[in-house]
Amino acid sequence: MAASSDRLPIIDDDASLATRAAWLYFAAGLTQSEVAERLNIQSTKAHRLIARASREGMIRVFVEGPVAECVALENTLAQRLGLSFCRVAPDLGEGDLPLKALALEGASFFRQILERGDDKVIGVGHGRTLAAVIEQLPRTPAREVQFVSLLGGLTRKFAANPFDVIHRLSERTGAEAYLLPVPVFANSVADRAVLMKQYGIADVFALARQASLLFVGIGQISRDGFLVSSGMIKPEEVVELKRVGACADLLGHFFHEDGRVLDIDLSARAMSMSPADLKQHRIVAIAGGLPKLTALRAVLRRAGLPELKDAARLQALRQALVAARDDAEPDWEAIGTPIAALLDTISLAHPRPAPATLSGPAPGAAEIRPGEYDPGGDDADPDLGDAGHRERECPAIRAADGAELIASDDHGRIPGQGRRIGRVVAQDRRDECAYRPP
Fold this sequence. Notes:
Elements: H1 13-27, H2 32-39, H3 43-55, H4 66-81, H5 99-116, E1 121-124, H6 128-136, E2 146-149, H7 163-173, E3 176-178, H8 189-196, H9 201-209, E4 213-217, E5 219-220, H10 226-229, H11 235-243, E6 246-250, E7 253-256, H12 265-268, H13 275-278, E8 283-286, H14 293-300, H15 311-326, H16 332-343, H17 387-393, E9 396-398, E10 404-406, H18 417-428, E11 433-434
């Protein structure tokens, strides 16, 4: 009889861990304690795994097998993206949504976290991938751990109810679990504020802020994504998300492809921790598959700068910032040197705004009149006197060092700053005023 293609492959977790431990110890050159920390296991278990790898003939000139390739990719990704932790799951040939591979790898990681016992409060998100992970998690007693929901979980469809994730997790571990019986998104920002004040809700959020680990999924923005299929948002809201450039979702917050967290109304209504709160936590996100590639890249761009893992560089930056803050007469050249060195290592890609569209026909030359300036008006600077009209005619003023200071009106500037710059340049370089057409 042919085996069902839906049947999960039989994988020896300890054998896989032994391979990883052997690769990290013999190929990457980590100590046994560093291997234990990397794999989230006890040092004694790391020793046993390495001994098993040697005993069973895994150690030759290099570690063979697909898992070794995964570990090599993990090291490369962690180094390039500034990650403190990375796991790569072997490809099981599942297609676009590799739930089996992610579930097996995620369950193995989660079991190791529970066995290690360092994390007493663990925040949990929801989604199809996390549900698959918990489904593969063996019974692992963890009665000293508290699990807490990181996002509201009331949905229109019971089959997609996120409470099922944390409820199953509590069943598998015997641990306490704290739920958020509120919608994923409130109807308005005002409604969110009201819900946050309800009895018990604020306490759950306070517990979530105490979590030492957040275990979450990464969502893609599409009409067939989990947010829509579960009834959390409407299809027309997906259209709006795509219009503003959203391509990824993490706990109700949306990311642009360049890594920016978008400040939009839907995020402001999310019943979850704020982005500022999330920055204070260790976050382990699990996701995979080609359709989520853009979403993964967007979120990983927020992970950090790998350059700051260099202790000497980080210390130099700290000293420079402290000097800029505390020194009575800062040495700006010395302060700027480590900052400039850091910027030289970063590839900057600024998003290009969409071309502006005209709301009507452009005015003809005869319709354009020179502007008028009232020296006695509210926006006038008495120190400049009759220089006001000259400022309107000379929007670009060249300073002594060749730099140009662009003069404008007061809209959107820091009060007094534009005037102060204008005074200095107007007094020092009145004769170097250059007119440029708009």
